[in-house]
Amino acid sequence: MIKARLLSGPASLLFLSIVSGFISITPLSADSAAADSLLVVGDSLSAGYGLSDSGQGWVALLQQRLQPRNITVVNASIPGDTSGGGLARLPAALAAHRPRIVILELGANDGLRGLPPAALKANLGAMIDQARSAGAQVLLLGMKLPPNYGGRYAEAFERVYQELAEEKQVRLLPFFLDGVAGDEHLLQSDGLHPNAEAQPLLMKSVFEKLEPLLVSIDRP
Questions:
Q1: What is the pLDDT averaged over residues 135-152?
Q2: Strand 137-141 to strand 171-173: parallel, antiparallel, or no bridges (unpaired)?
Q3: In this model, does residue 3 exceed pLDDT 60?
Q4: Spatial contact of 184 and 197, defined as CB atoms under 8 Å apart
Protein backbone atom coordinates (compact mmCIF):
# COMPACT_ATOMS: atom_id res chain seq x y z
CA MET A 1 0.00 0.00 0.00
CA ILE A 2 1.30 3.44 -0.93
CA LYS A 3 0.45 6.38 1.27
CA ALA A 4 1.30 10.05 1.19
CA ARG A 5 1.95 11.12 4.78
CA LEU A 6 -1.03 12.74 6.45
CA LEU A 7 0.12 15.81 8.31
CA SER A 8 -1.27 16.53 11.75
CA GLY A 9 -3.55 19.48 12.27
CA PRO A 10 -7.15 20.47 12.95
CA ALA A 11 -9.69 17.77 12.23
CA SER A 12 -11.24 18.15 8.82
CA LEU A 13 -14.98 18.18 8.30
CA LEU A 14 -17.15 16.34 5.86
CA PHE A 15 -17.65 19.48 3.81
CA LEU A 16 -14.29 20.84 4.67
CA SER A 17 -11.06 21.14 2.79
CA ILE A 18 -8.02 19.20 4.01
CA VAL A 19 -4.70 20.40 2.71
CA SER A 20 -2.64 17.29 3.44
CA GLY A 21 -3.08 14.37 1.10
CA PHE A 22 -3.62 10.66 1.37
CA ILE A 23 -3.57 8.12 -1.40
CA SER A 24 -4.22 4.47 -0.75
CA ILE A 25 -3.46 2.28 -3.72
CA THR A 26 -3.87 -1.45 -3.98
CA PRO A 27 -0.88 -2.50 -6.13
CA LEU A 28 -1.06 -5.25 -8.69
CA SER A 29 0.88 -8.31 -7.59
CA ALA A 30 2.18 -11.03 -9.85
CA ASP A 31 -0.86 -13.14 -8.95
CA SER A 32 -3.33 -10.34 -9.69
CA ALA A 33 -1.68 -8.79 -12.74
CA ALA A 34 -4.45 -10.12 -14.98
CA ALA A 35 -7.21 -8.72 -12.77
CA ASP A 36 -9.58 -6.06 -13.97
CA SER A 37 -9.25 -2.81 -12.06
CA LEU A 38 -11.76 -0.42 -10.55
CA LEU A 39 -10.65 3.13 -9.80
CA VAL A 40 -12.12 5.23 -6.98
CA VAL A 41 -11.45 8.97 -7.24
CA GLY A 42 -12.70 10.79 -4.17
CA ASP A 43 -11.94 12.88 -1.11
CA SER A 44 -11.75 12.19 2.65
CA LEU A 45 -14.99 10.18 2.55
CA SER A 46 -13.27 7.54 0.44
CA ALA A 47 -9.71 7.93 1.76
CA GLY A 48 -10.58 6.46 5.17
CA TYR A 49 -10.01 9.74 6.97
CA GLY A 50 -10.13 9.43 10.77
CA LEU A 51 -10.37 5.63 10.84
CA SER A 52 -7.93 3.75 13.05
CA ASP A 53 -7.31 1.12 10.36
CA SER A 54 -7.29 1.75 6.62
CA GLY A 55 -8.91 -1.64 6.17
CA GLN A 56 -12.08 -0.31 7.80
CA GLY A 57 -12.90 2.09 4.97
CA TRP A 58 -15.67 1.40 2.50
CA VAL A 59 -13.23 1.17 -0.41
CA ALA A 60 -11.20 -1.52 1.39
CA LEU A 61 -14.45 -3.35 2.17
CA LEU A 62 -15.40 -3.13 -1.48
CA GLN A 63 -12.06 -4.73 -2.40
CA GLN A 64 -12.88 -7.62 -0.08
CA ARG A 65 -16.29 -7.98 -1.68
CA LEU A 66 -14.84 -8.02 -5.18
CA GLN A 67 -11.85 -10.27 -4.49
CA PRO A 68 -13.63 -13.46 -5.69
CA ARG A 69 -14.38 -11.71 -8.98
CA ASN A 70 -10.69 -11.00 -9.60
CA ILE A 71 -11.17 -7.23 -9.55
CA THR A 72 -8.49 -4.99 -8.07
CA VAL A 73 -9.71 -1.77 -6.45
CA VAL A 74 -7.40 1.22 -6.75
CA ASN A 75 -8.18 3.96 -4.23
CA ALA A 76 -6.99 7.31 -5.58
CA SER A 77 -8.82 9.43 -3.00
CA ILE A 78 -7.29 12.47 -1.32
CA PRO A 79 -8.78 14.30 1.68
CA GLY A 80 -9.75 17.84 0.81
CA ASP A 81 -9.77 17.24 -2.92
CA THR A 82 -12.17 19.14 -5.14
CA SER A 83 -13.63 18.26 -8.51
CA GLY A 84 -10.97 20.46 -10.08
CA GLY A 85 -8.21 18.53 -8.33
CA GLY A 86 -9.74 15.24 -9.36
CA LEU A 87 -9.95 16.37 -12.96
CA ALA A 88 -6.28 17.37 -12.96
CA ARG A 89 -5.04 14.01 -11.70
CA LEU A 90 -7.47 11.67 -13.44
CA PRO A 91 -5.55 11.29 -16.74
CA ALA A 92 -2.48 9.92 -14.96
CA ALA A 93 -4.58 7.51 -12.90
CA LEU A 94 -6.39 6.25 -15.99
CA ALA A 95 -3.11 5.71 -17.82
CA ALA A 96 -1.49 3.96 -14.87
CA HIS A 97 -4.32 1.60 -13.95
CA ARG A 98 -6.49 1.26 -17.07
CA PRO A 99 -9.66 0.71 -15.03
CA ARG A 100 -12.76 -0.96 -16.39
CA ILE A 101 -14.91 1.04 -13.96
CA VAL A 102 -14.39 4.47 -12.36
CA ILE A 103 -16.28 5.59 -9.24
CA LEU A 104 -16.38 9.38 -8.85
CA GLU A 105 -16.93 10.64 -5.29
CA LEU A 106 -16.18 14.36 -5.38
CA GLY A 107 -17.92 17.65 -4.77
CA ALA A 108 -18.25 18.04 -1.00
CA ASN A 109 -15.24 20.36 -0.82
CA ASP A 110 -16.49 22.34 -3.81
CA GLY A 111 -19.63 22.99 -1.82
CA LEU A 112 -17.74 24.00 1.32
CA ARG A 113 -15.77 26.55 -0.64
CA GLY A 114 -18.90 27.88 -2.29
CA LEU A 115 -17.58 27.12 -5.77
CA PRO A 116 -20.11 27.59 -8.57
CA PRO A 117 -22.25 24.49 -9.25
CA ALA A 118 -21.60 25.10 -12.95
CA ALA A 119 -17.88 24.55 -12.35
CA LEU A 120 -18.59 21.36 -10.42
CA LYS A 121 -20.73 20.10 -13.27
CA ALA A 122 -18.10 20.97 -15.87
CA ASN A 123 -15.34 19.23 -13.91
CA LEU A 124 -17.29 16.08 -13.19
CA GLY A 125 -18.59 16.00 -16.76
CA ALA A 126 -15.05 16.19 -18.10
CA MET A 127 -14.00 13.37 -15.77
CA ILE A 128 -16.85 11.21 -17.02
CA ASP A 129 -15.83 11.90 -20.61
CA GLN A 130 -12.18 11.10 -19.90
CA ALA A 131 -13.06 7.85 -18.15
CA ARG A 132 -15.24 6.76 -21.03
CA SER A 133 -12.61 7.68 -23.58
CA ALA A 134 -10.25 5.40 -21.67
CA GLY A 135 -12.76 2.55 -21.96
CA ALA A 136 -14.19 2.71 -18.43
CA GLN A 137 -17.76 2.73 -17.21
CA VAL A 138 -18.66 5.33 -14.57
CA LEU A 139 -20.57 5.33 -11.30
CA LEU A 140 -21.24 8.81 -9.92
CA LEU A 141 -21.78 9.27 -6.18
CA GLY A 142 -23.99 12.24 -5.43
CA MET A 143 -23.61 14.65 -2.53
CA LYS A 144 -25.82 17.08 -0.64
CA LEU A 145 -25.01 20.12 1.45
CA PRO A 146 -26.34 21.01 4.91
CA PRO A 147 -29.32 23.41 4.98
CA ASN A 148 -27.20 26.23 6.41
CA TYR A 149 -25.51 26.61 3.03
CA GLY A 150 -28.68 28.19 1.74
CA GLY A 151 -31.53 26.44 0.00
CA ARG A 152 -30.89 27.95 -3.39
CA TYR A 153 -27.21 27.04 -3.53
CA ALA A 154 -27.77 23.59 -1.97
CA GLU A 155 -30.47 22.77 -4.52
CA ALA A 156 -28.30 23.86 -7.43
CA PHE A 157 -25.41 21.82 -6.03
CA GLU A 158 -27.50 18.67 -5.62
CA ARG A 159 -29.05 19.09 -9.06
CA VAL A 160 -25.61 18.83 -10.69
CA TYR A 161 -25.43 15.10 -10.05
CA GLN A 162 -28.89 14.31 -11.35
CA GLU A 163 -28.34 16.40 -14.48
CA LEU A 164 -25.00 14.73 -15.19
CA ALA A 165 -26.47 11.26 -14.72
CA GLU A 166 -29.21 12.07 -17.23
CA GLU A 167 -27.07 13.93 -19.75
CA LYS A 168 -24.12 11.54 -19.68
CA GLN A 169 -26.23 8.42 -19.12
CA VAL A 170 -24.18 7.17 -16.17
CA ARG A 171 -25.32 5.31 -13.08
CA LEU A 172 -25.92 7.51 -10.05
CA LEU A 173 -26.11 6.97 -6.31
CA PRO A 174 -28.15 10.12 -5.53
CA PHE A 175 -26.74 10.69 -2.04
CA PHE A 176 -23.64 8.79 -1.02
CA LEU A 177 -24.22 9.44 2.72
CA ASP A 178 -27.90 8.55 2.72
CA GLY A 179 -28.76 6.94 6.07
CA VAL A 180 -25.46 8.05 7.59
CA ALA A 181 -25.39 11.86 7.51
CA GLY A 182 -26.99 13.30 10.62
CA ASP A 183 -26.83 10.06 12.62
CA GLU A 184 -24.47 10.66 15.54
CA HIS A 185 -24.01 6.92 16.05
CA LEU A 186 -22.53 6.59 12.56
CA LEU A 187 -20.31 9.66 12.65
CA GLN A 188 -16.92 10.50 14.08
CA SER A 189 -16.50 13.00 16.88
CA ASP A 190 -16.49 15.87 14.38
CA GLY A 191 -20.11 15.03 13.70
CA LEU A 192 -19.51 14.86 9.96
CA HIS A 193 -17.14 12.10 8.85
CA PRO A 194 -18.58 8.56 8.85
CA ASN A 195 -17.08 6.28 11.50
CA ALA A 196 -16.04 2.64 11.18
CA GLU A 197 -19.57 1.42 11.89
CA ALA A 198 -20.88 3.40 8.93
CA GLN A 199 -18.37 2.04 6.40
CA PRO A 200 -20.17 -1.26 5.65
CA LEU A 201 -23.38 0.71 5.05
CA LEU A 202 -21.59 2.99 2.58
CA MET A 203 -20.05 0.02 0.81
CA LYS A 204 -23.44 -1.71 0.56
CA SER A 205 -25.05 1.38 -0.98
CA VAL A 206 -22.26 1.72 -3.52
CA PHE A 207 -22.24 -1.99 -4.35
CA GLU A 208 -25.97 -2.02 -5.11
CA LYS A 209 -25.44 0.64 -7.79
CA LEU A 210 -22.16 -0.86 -8.94
CA GLU A 211 -23.29 -4.44 -9.46
CA PRO A 212 -24.97 -3.91 -12.85
CA LEU A 213 -21.69 -2.49 -14.17
CA LEU A 214 -19.79 -5.50 -12.90
CA VAL A 215 -21.84 -7.84 -15.05
CA SER A 216 -20.16 -6.54 -18.17
CA ILE A 217 -16.66 -7.29 -16.90
CA ASP A 218 -17.27 -10.53 -15.03
CA ARG A 219 -15.33 -13.42 -16.46
CA PRO A 220 -17.10 -16.73 -17.15
A1: 92
A2: parallel
A3: no
A4: no
